[in-house]
Amino acid sequence: MNRATPRLRALAALPFALVLAAHLLLLALWYDRLPDPLATHFGGGGDADGFTGRAAFLAVSTALILGLGAGWTLLVRRTALWGAWATAGFTGALLALLVRDNLDAVDAARVESPLVNLTVAAGVAGVFAAAGRALTRLVPPTDAEAPAVDGGPRLPLGASEVAGWTRATGSRPLTALAVLALVAGPVALLLAPWPAALLGLLGLVIGVPGLALARVRVTVDRRGLTVRPSFAARPRLRVPLDEVAGADVRDVDAVADFGGWGYRVRAHRTGVVLRSGEALVVRRTGGREFAVTVPDARTAAALLNTLAERHGKV
C-alpha cells in the first residue's frame, strides 16, 4: 500500500487552500454586486434554470472545496498528486466563472453561462495539473514506492557502462483494419447521403489511433520504458525508472488477460497488446502493472531491472 507522507498530504491540500482563499476573496469583494438568489444551474443552452441564495451558495461552495480537499488529502498517492491539483483548479475556475456570470445581474433568471466556461476551466485544470506534477519531485518515494527489483532477470553492466534496447513490433491484422477504416471514412463522407455521411467520421476516429497502435517501438534506456508509434515520436507511453518496481517476462493471452488487442485498461493493469504470447511486464511502484507484447522481452526486462536498480542507488 502506498502511504501518504505528511509532505505529500500538505501538497495535496495546498491547491484547495489556495482555491478556497481566492473564492472567499472574490465573494467578499463582489458580495453586494451579486443577485439574491444567484443562478447556479444552467441548461444545455446556457440559460439559468436553478437558483441558490447568496448565503447558501457561500456555504455550499465552501463545503464543496473543503470536501474535495479532504478527500484528496486523505487518499492521495505520490503518483496522483497532479490529480488533486487538477481537481482544485477545475472546481475553483468553475466557481469563479459562475460568480462572474452573476455579477451585477438584475434578474438571476436572465443570467447565462456559456459552454466555453468548461473549456476555460479545463485549461486551468491543465495548468494546475502541470504544477502538481512538478511538485511531485519534492516528495521522496516511500518504502513501498522505492524501486524493489528483487528477482527478475538482470543484464550485467559495469558501473560506467551505458546501454539501451529497442525493438519495433506490430500486428498485421490491426494494421489492415486501421488502413481499411482510414480509407472507408473519407469515402463514406464523400459518397454517403447526409447526415449518414457523418458515420464516415467513425472511420477516422477508429483508424488514426488504430494505425498508431498497430506498430509500435519499444525502448528501454536511461529514461525507463517508452512505447510509441513506430512512425512518430508522440503520443507515447512512458514508465520512468523511479516508478519501476520490477520487470519480467510473461506469456499473455490477448483476449483472456486483456479483453482484446490495442491499448487495454483492466483492473490493476494496462497494456499495449498486439498479439498473444511473450510480453514485457513492468510492476510499477503504485502497485499496477504495464505490459507490452514484444519479441526479446527477456533482454528488455533484464536491462530495465538493472537500470532501475542502479537508479535507485543514485
Automatic annotation (TrEMBL):
Question: Carries keyword Plastid?
Answer: no
Q: Does the keyword Coiled coil apply?
A: no
Segments forming domain DUF1648: 19-58
User: Which keywords does UniProt give here?
Assistant: Membrane, Transmembrane, Transmembrane helix
Matching InterPro entries: DUF1648
Coiled-coil ranges from the UniProt annotation: none
Any matching Pfam family: DUF1648
Q: Where are the transmembrane segments?
A: 12-31, 51-75, 82-99, 111-131, 174-192, 198-218
**UniProt-recorded name of the protein:** DUF1648 domain-containing protein
Q: What is the organism field in this record?
A: Streptomyces vietnamensis
